[in-house]
Design goal:
Number of domains of chain A: 3
Strand content of chain A: 25-35%
Largest sheet of chain A: 6 strands, mixed
Number of strands of chain A: 21
Low-confidence stretches of chain A: 278-283
Strand order of the largest sheet of chain A: 7-6-5-8-10-9
Oligomer: homodimer
Helix content of chain A: 25-40%
């Protein structure tokens, strides 16, 4: 097990008439003795640097590199012993938010985690708008702002940890197929249309300078492979984080974010389904959603006569916002009180002071907000998000299970990734059918599975083979064109 | 046996919902089926190009690349079938003259050969002057003008053959160790001093854009390895051209140019010696030397009483200049007539109208020149060149033969390369001791052996392993510091 960037300090004996091999040849000899890779690949700019550094230090240098098959791809040469300063950056390119995690590859510790809105949002909140803009000549712009966002995060993470970005020797990037294309500088606009075919799935190892990153210019950059237009490297990375491909027993991975993505499998086989659940989930679960933490509303009832709510919040703070179970209670109570029909539309004929237009959208106000806080409310869009996601997840899970003939009860673990997984607790999600009905102890929340997989590869480069193998061998079903999908989706779209 | 650049025309089926692999992944699959290399390496700029070209041509493309171990390094992707347009450029970087040869890799034909003065000459006629300039901050300048010279020649060769430089997919470069360093952008100035250690001997495969060549930007560039400061890739290339490392019997390779370089060996072992014979040979054999062709003076006698010469020239043209045998005759006659002492100095006390200052150097004028031609003359510098070269060659050959205990008579072939080899015929060279005394039929003139080896590698990439193996395993003796050298050299420096 070796980290994605390896560093070796070597001392090259000073050349003499009897040992008159060239400086860099002697260095190469010393490095191949120290690593398992029989071959070394130097970019020319580092050869020029090596020539000077070797002479200036009388041969006392540290060489950083990354092993690709049988070759050490050199990423840096530094004077003296810097072998303990070896840093990697995991990057998760979400359509909405980009997140980075700075790892000390010597200790395995996370030194900093930062996230910010994907700079592309300025050119379209949802992916389809950006793909349309890319198709109109905006592709380079979108590549530029995405790389700017990543570099800004790299800079923030490094500054907070007190290291220089040039000390980052390895970068792992997980993102959906379109984001991977934008990151590389490829125009993904054609993927909007059938047969939704990407330009590239398996991406060769890059160097940071190729994609304008502010890390060490020759830092190795690994981008997780995609499988199809709707099945990106973020899901492969999530699979790596879950360990699903290492388990004897069969597990299910559910990633609920912009798209619905699910993997069912074990170390022998894997089958996946992915597709768009509509653009509704872009902005998150619901405007007033929050984690299940002190102050979050977790139980709601609505009086069917007065339409006035009562609620209880997790103790400790002033009640504001709702966690997943609060959201589900609220939707169920709106329906039971007659304020919501079974398709998810407000019944505005029922008069109540709780109806209010907020941000130009009709809302049901749950709390007025205390101490200057904004109200807690729910919109039809929030409800539609929940119903659509539920329907898509039910359809995806049903199709996957039917396709391989596994019984639901035989699924040993359900790994959940994506923003829904964080905001909704397992009990609530199981109740409304978002998660399959299985004992609570089988559920494992990965949080940002995509970022976790990117970190896992930084710490153990051998998992790259696993990621590539998953992408090569997984059976991938396109959700949106699957014959069963619309039937199941429609019947599951109601409350 | 495959050429250094290989091209494959493929037709990639149009993607569909059932065959929804990414475009470039499908292309990679088709290419690995067509080549022996299981892996493919794409530079990012060509991935971007491939994405467009594949769509524009509905998957009908030609991919050019070069196989390095188990990997096809892609150098170009072109629309349609261009597999028959596959060109390579052999480059010999001499200190004095740079030569190129444009090869059609499909037919093996030479399409053009051009040579011109190395642009570095402006900054110093001889190598030591240039190394001094490089040590004073002139290294980048010398790299720039050298690359300019090469690009000028590439342009001339391509223009004359009616192809675009961007169609050149492979470049092989042979030059002495300093020239290889300059070509890469490395400063070779430190090699002036003991222990004469280069920065690099084995040079990784480059791409044309790394070294600013005007060929296809990603054309593969192979630079022959050096063995030491005075033993460069030009000699390794010459060894490849001679086939010395493939022979059962033992052969000798003599390269007489700026430096004295000699290899003795066979397929089992090789031993080499190289070193500076002084800066005298920079400008060529002699100012008025020419090939043994019509008009060249080949026999000279000088009247010991009047000091007037008589001569005969090869029939066909007005006599002008001398070939090798004429040069040797002339030197011998000057000595016998008393106009030259045994150390190679003119005896100017002897009065003759033949003494004349030409280009600020005292000369003996052999012919006045007819039809407006310049005179044919010889200077002390020319004579010193010949004597020094002779002495160095005798020393080198003697040391080599003594070091391995081979009898002179057992040397099956003597390959001669470099300008002396072209200008001096075997009989004359053997007479004055420049070449070892062996039957004439054992001598093989390679001409520009360095360029010939560069061409050989373009046509058969497998010979790269042979070149690298020679450089790795050859026993190399540094001529200038060898204990026997000065004794043999001094005793051989007289007429």
């Amino acid at each position: 097990m070796s980290t994605l960037s390896v560093k070796h300090y070597v001392e090259i004996p000073v050349g003499s008439l009897d040992n008159n091999k060239a400086d860099i040849d002697r260095l190469n000899h010393a490095i191949t003795e120290a690593t398992s890779a029989p071959h070394i690949e130097w970019p020319l700019d580092l050869i020029l640097e090596a020539a000077s550094v070797l002479r200036e230090t009388s041969g006392k240098v540290t060489v950083a590199g990354s092993i690709v098959r049988d070759t050490l791809m050199v990423s840096s040469i530094e004077p003296g012993d810097t072998s303990q300063r070896n840093f990697g950056m995991a990057v998760d390119i979400g359509t909405t938010v980009v997140a980075v995690e700075l790892i000390d590859l010597t200790t395995g510790a996370t030194l900093a985690t930062f996230g910010e809105v994907n700079g592309q949002a300025e050119y379209g909140e949802d992916l389809l708008t950006r793909l349309h803009f890319a198709g109109q000549g905006g592709s380079e712009t979108l590549t530029g702002v995405l790389r700017d966002t990543i570099n800004d995060l790299v800079n923030k993470a490094c500054t907070s940890a007190g290291i220089s970005p040039s000390e980052v020797m390895a970068v792992t990037v997980a993102g959906n197929t379109s984001m991977a294309h934008f990151f590389l500088g490829l125009n993904p606009a054609v993927m909007r249309f059938e047969p939704y075919i990407p330009s590239i799935n398996h991406i060769p190892r890059l160097r940071a300078k190729d994609v304008s990153l502010i890390t060490a210019p020759n830092a190795t950059v690994y981008v997780f492979p995609s499988v199809g237009g709707y099945f990106g490297g973020d899901l492969i990375s999530g699979a790596i984080a879950s360990g699903i491909s290492e388990n004897e027993g069969t597990s299910l991975l559910l990633d609920i974010g912009t798209n619905v993505e699910a993997i069912l499998g074990n170390k022998e086989w894997m089958v996946a389904i992915a597709g768009s659940a509509g653009p509704a989930l872009e902005a998150g679960v619901a405007e007033c959603a929050r984690r299940a933490e002190p102050g979050a509303i977790e139980r709601v009832t609505i009086d069917p006569a007065t339409f006035e709510p009562t609620y209880s919040a997790i103790a400790g703070e002033t009640a504001y916002g709702f966690c997943g179970s609060g959201l589900i209670d609220l939707v169920a109570q709106l329906y039971l009180s007659g304020l919501l029909d079974s398709t998810g539309r407000f019944v505005l004929e029922k008069e109540t002071a709780r109806w209010r237009e907020i941000n130009a959208r009709m809302s049901y106000v749950l709390t007025e907000g205390a101490n200057g806080q904004t109200p807690t409310y729910i919109t039809e869009k929030d409800i539609h998000n929940l119903l659509t996601t539920k329907a898509a997840m039910i359809a995806a899970t049903t199709i996957l299970i039917n396709s391989v003939g596994v019984a639901l009860k035989d699924i040993e673990h359900v790994y959940t990734a994506g923003s829904f997984g964080i905001h909704i607790d397992v009990d609530s999600a199981t109740t409304i059918g978002l998660y399959p009905k299985l004992p609570k102890e089988r559920f494992v929340t990965l949080g940002n599975g995509s970022l976790a997989g990117a970190r896992a590869v930084l710490l153990n480069a051998e998992r790259i083979s696993e990621a590539e193998h998953i992408a090569d061998t997984i059976t991938y079903l396109e959700l949106n064109v699957h014959p069963e999908f619309m039937d199941i989706f429609r019947s599951a779209s109601y409350i």
